[in-house]
Amino acid sequence: MKALLDFVPLVVFFFLAKTQTIFVATQGLIIASVVIYGLHFALQKGRLEKGQWITLLLTLAFGGLTLYLRDDMWLRWKSPIINWIFGTAFLLSPIVGKNPIPLVQRFLDQVFELSSTAWKKLNLTWAVFFYFLGTLHLIFAFTFPKFWIDFKVFGGTAIMIIFMVGQFILLRKHLKTPENQN
Question: What are phi and psi of 25, to 5 degrees?
Fold first, then answer.
Protein backbone atom coordinates (compact mmCIF):
# COMPACT_ATOMS: atom_id res chain seq x y z
CA MET A 1 0.00 0.00 0.00
CA LYS A 2 2.77 2.40 0.99
CA ALA A 3 4.65 1.80 -2.27
CA LEU A 4 1.49 2.36 -4.32
CA LEU A 5 0.90 5.71 -2.63
CA ASP A 6 4.34 6.85 -3.80
CA PHE A 7 3.16 6.58 -7.41
CA VAL A 8 0.22 8.97 -6.95
CA PRO A 9 2.27 12.17 -7.49
CA LEU A 10 3.84 10.59 -10.60
CA VAL A 11 0.41 9.70 -12.01
CA VAL A 12 -0.88 13.22 -11.28
CA PHE A 13 2.20 14.71 -12.94
CA PHE A 14 1.87 12.49 -16.02
CA PHE A 15 -1.84 13.19 -16.47
CA LEU A 16 -1.41 16.95 -16.12
CA ALA A 17 1.70 17.02 -18.32
CA LYS A 18 -0.22 15.28 -21.11
CA THR A 19 -3.38 17.38 -20.75
CA GLN A 20 -2.06 20.76 -19.53
CA THR A 21 1.29 22.54 -19.44
CA ILE A 22 4.46 21.37 -17.71
CA PHE A 23 3.95 24.13 -15.16
CA VAL A 24 0.45 22.97 -14.25
CA ALA A 25 1.85 19.43 -14.04
CA THR A 26 4.61 20.67 -11.73
CA GLN A 27 2.04 22.32 -9.48
CA GLY A 28 0.08 19.07 -9.41
CA LEU A 29 3.25 17.13 -8.61
CA ILE A 30 4.08 19.41 -5.68
CA ILE A 31 0.55 19.35 -4.26
CA ALA A 32 0.20 15.57 -4.68
CA SER A 33 3.63 15.02 -3.09
CA VAL A 34 2.77 17.16 -0.05
CA VAL A 35 -0.55 15.31 0.36
CA ILE A 36 0.95 11.82 -0.07
CA TYR A 37 3.95 12.45 2.18
CA GLY A 38 1.64 14.10 4.70
CA LEU A 39 -0.40 10.89 4.64
CA HIS A 40 2.79 8.84 5.03
CA PHE A 41 3.75 11.07 7.96
CA ALA A 42 0.42 10.38 9.64
CA LEU A 43 0.45 6.63 8.88
CA GLN A 44 4.06 6.29 10.06
CA LYS A 45 3.26 7.86 13.43
CA GLY A 46 4.75 11.28 12.85
CA ARG A 47 7.84 10.37 10.88
CA LEU A 48 9.13 9.97 7.35
CA GLU A 49 11.96 7.71 6.21
CA LYS A 50 15.15 9.38 4.94
CA GLY A 51 14.36 8.44 1.34
CA GLN A 52 10.89 9.95 1.67
CA TRP A 53 12.35 13.19 3.05
CA ILE A 54 14.88 13.35 0.20
CA THR A 55 12.20 12.79 -2.44
CA LEU A 56 9.80 15.32 -0.90
CA LEU A 57 12.39 18.04 -0.34
CA LEU A 58 13.90 17.68 -3.81
CA THR A 59 10.43 17.69 -5.37
CA LEU A 60 9.63 20.92 -3.53
CA ALA A 61 13.00 22.47 -4.39
CA PHE A 62 13.19 21.54 -8.07
CA GLY A 63 9.46 21.96 -8.62
CA GLY A 64 9.58 25.32 -6.88
CA LEU A 65 12.52 26.48 -9.01
CA THR A 66 10.72 25.27 -12.14
CA LEU A 67 7.66 27.34 -11.27
CA TYR A 68 9.52 30.40 -9.99
CA LEU A 69 11.92 30.60 -12.96
CA ARG A 70 9.37 29.25 -15.49
CA ASP A 71 12.01 26.80 -16.74
CA ASP A 72 11.39 23.04 -16.67
CA MET A 73 15.14 22.36 -16.82
CA TRP A 74 15.10 22.37 -13.01
CA LEU A 75 12.46 19.65 -12.86
CA ARG A 76 14.42 17.58 -15.38
CA TRP A 77 17.33 17.43 -12.94
CA LYS A 78 15.20 16.08 -10.06
CA SER A 79 15.11 12.37 -10.99
CA PRO A 80 18.82 12.06 -11.86
CA ILE A 81 19.83 13.77 -8.63
CA ILE A 82 17.47 11.69 -6.47
CA ASN A 83 18.78 8.48 -8.05
CA TRP A 84 22.41 9.57 -7.63
CA ILE A 85 21.76 10.44 -3.97
CA PHE A 86 20.29 6.98 -3.41
CA GLY A 87 23.24 5.42 -5.27
CA THR A 88 25.66 7.35 -3.05
CA ALA A 89 23.76 6.29 0.07
CA PHE A 90 24.11 2.63 -0.96
CA LEU A 91 27.77 3.11 -1.86
CA LEU A 92 28.72 4.79 1.42
CA SER A 93 26.51 2.79 3.80
CA PRO A 94 29.05 0.00 4.48
CA ILE A 95 31.68 2.53 5.62
CA VAL A 96 29.75 5.43 7.20
CA GLY A 97 27.63 5.77 10.31
CA LYS A 98 27.42 4.38 13.83
CA ASN A 99 26.66 0.89 12.58
CA PRO A 100 28.12 0.71 9.06
CA ILE A 101 26.28 -2.12 7.34
CA PRO A 102 25.19 -2.20 3.71
CA LEU A 103 21.94 -0.31 3.17
CA VAL A 104 20.48 -3.17 1.16
CA GLN A 105 21.06 -5.45 4.15
CA ARG A 106 19.01 -3.11 6.34
CA PHE A 107 16.12 -3.40 3.89
CA LEU A 108 16.32 -7.07 2.98
CA ASP A 109 17.86 -8.80 5.99
CA GLN A 110 14.45 -10.17 7.01
CA VAL A 111 14.03 -11.73 3.56
CA PHE A 112 17.44 -13.14 2.58
CA GLU A 113 20.21 -15.06 4.32
CA LEU A 114 23.50 -13.82 2.83
CA SER A 115 27.14 -13.70 3.89
CA SER A 116 28.76 -10.37 4.72
CA THR A 117 30.59 -10.43 1.39
CA ALA A 118 27.40 -11.17 -0.52
CA TRP A 119 25.59 -8.28 1.20
CA LYS A 120 28.40 -5.93 0.17
CA LYS A 121 28.28 -7.14 -3.44
CA LEU A 122 24.49 -6.81 -3.54
CA ASN A 123 24.75 -3.34 -2.02
CA LEU A 124 27.27 -2.32 -4.70
CA THR A 125 24.92 -3.68 -7.36
CA TRP A 126 22.13 -1.44 -6.03
CA ALA A 127 24.46 1.58 -5.94
CA VAL A 128 25.49 1.01 -9.56
CA PHE A 129 21.86 0.51 -10.53
CA PHE A 130 20.82 3.87 -9.04
CA TYR A 131 23.71 5.66 -10.77
CA PHE A 132 22.72 3.97 -14.05
CA LEU A 133 19.04 4.87 -13.62
CA GLY A 134 19.91 8.47 -12.76
CA THR A 135 22.06 8.69 -15.88
CA LEU A 136 19.22 7.29 -18.02
CA HIS A 137 16.88 9.91 -16.57
CA LEU A 138 19.44 12.59 -17.43
CA ILE A 139 19.85 11.32 -20.99
CA PHE A 140 16.11 11.30 -21.61
CA ALA A 141 15.58 14.66 -19.91
CA PHE A 142 18.11 16.53 -22.05
CA THR A 143 18.75 14.39 -25.15
CA PHE A 144 15.23 13.13 -25.83
CA PRO A 145 13.03 15.81 -24.20
CA LYS A 146 10.00 14.73 -26.25
CA PHE A 147 10.08 11.34 -24.49
CA TRP A 148 11.28 12.57 -21.08
CA ILE A 149 7.92 12.49 -19.29
CA ASP A 150 7.03 9.08 -20.73
CA PHE A 151 10.40 7.69 -19.65
CA LYS A 152 10.12 9.30 -16.21
CA VAL A 153 6.76 7.66 -15.57
CA PHE A 154 6.92 4.38 -17.48
CA GLY A 155 10.53 3.68 -18.43
CA GLY A 156 12.12 4.42 -15.08
CA THR A 157 9.37 2.59 -13.23
CA ALA A 158 9.59 -0.45 -15.53
CA ILE A 159 13.38 -0.60 -15.21
CA MET A 160 13.09 -0.42 -11.41
CA ILE A 161 10.50 -3.23 -11.32
CA ILE A 162 12.54 -5.42 -13.68
CA PHE A 163 15.67 -4.84 -11.60
CA MET A 164 13.91 -5.71 -8.34
CA VAL A 165 12.22 -8.81 -9.76
CA GLY A 166 15.57 -9.87 -11.24
CA GLN A 167 17.21 -9.48 -7.84
CA PHE A 168 14.58 -11.66 -6.20
CA ILE A 169 14.91 -14.31 -8.93
CA LEU A 170 18.70 -14.39 -8.57
CA LEU A 171 18.51 -14.49 -4.78
CA ARG A 172 15.57 -16.88 -4.38
CA LYS A 173 17.80 -19.71 -3.18
CA HIS A 174 18.85 -17.44 -0.30
CA LEU A 175 15.30 -16.72 0.89
CA LYS A 176 14.91 -17.15 4.61
CA THR A 177 12.66 -19.99 5.62
CA PRO A 178 10.86 -20.27 8.99
CA GLU A 179 13.59 -22.60 10.29
CA ASN A 180 16.50 -20.24 9.46
CA GLN A 181 14.88 -16.93 10.46
CA ASN A 182 16.20 -15.12 13.52
Answer: -60, -40
